[in-house]
Structure formats: structure tokens, C-alpha cells
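Could you help me review a protein record that somebody else here produced? What it holds is a sequence and that sequence's fold in C-alpha cell form. I have pasted the whole thing underneath without changing anything:
=====
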Amino acid sequence: MAVTLLDTRVSPFGMRVRIALEEKGVKYEYSEQDLSSKGPMLRKVWNNKSPLLPSNPYQRAQSRFWADFVDYKVYFPGRKTWTKKGQELEAGKNGLIESLKLLEGELGDKPYFEGDKLGYVDVALIPFYSWFHGYETFANFSIEAECPKLIACRMRVYLNLFQIHKKSMVFWWS
């Protein structure tokens, strides 16, 4: 059965789905959409290949927590860095830095958030890596200076995914 992905290229949430499908080796057809008039989306679960969530219920809950953290504590403050000015921009920048530092602490010295393999939290965060330059440009700061381990992880993830999938890095943000 073929999978059709209804998406828009600028959506970090749609990018998560593209990453997950690539990671699972699921062939799919990309269909650019106006997301304000969504149609039904089909999903197929592959239990035996590249599970994105841990089998342990506690670890699974932690992964969901951190992915939700990314949705709210990276997306919204990050958005303020390019949509707001003055104090609101600074609040967004500071909130983003604080959130990225927490994520960096959770990552620790592991190659991925869930250890030795790409997981749900990585899939949640990877789409935002392509926005880092914009955050830095609009808010005049360096994520690498604030969170060097997270940036090292970003580069490692890009290289690993490129080697596995033999796709141009443009795939991840275009």
C-alpha cells in the first residue's frame, strides 16, 4: 500500500512525518497541500522496523513529554524571535535558549535522545534545526555558543541520516 503525505514544505510538523517515514523506510508520495483545508490522512504502523518510541512504558512517556516540550517550548519562543520586536523578541530568545539548554541536558553525551538510535524526541526536534540560523539571525545570538552539545548532535544527526538515506541535506528542510 502506498502512503500519500499531505503536507506543506515549511511545516516543521510535516517534516517530522517525512523524517519518520524515511527512517522507517516507508515509500511515500509527497503532496503539497493548503493545510487550511486538510483531508483525511492515512497511517500505517510498522512495529518491527525502527521503532520511534521505546517499548518501556515509562521511557515511552518520557519521550512523549520531551516531544511535547519541543512543540511548546521550542516552537513558540523560537517563533517570537522572528515575529516580535523589542522585549517580546528578547523574551522569546531567552525562552528558546532556556529550552534548548534543558534539551541539551537531557541529551547528555548520548548520540540521540533515546541512546544509540534515532527516536521520537529526535524526530520532534530535527525539523527545528533548519530554523536555528533564522532564530540566530533575527535575535542576534549563537545557539552553538549557548548549546554546543546540541549543535554537535545536530551535525551528527544530519550526517548519519544522509549516510543512511543517501539524500541531500536539502531534503530535511526543503
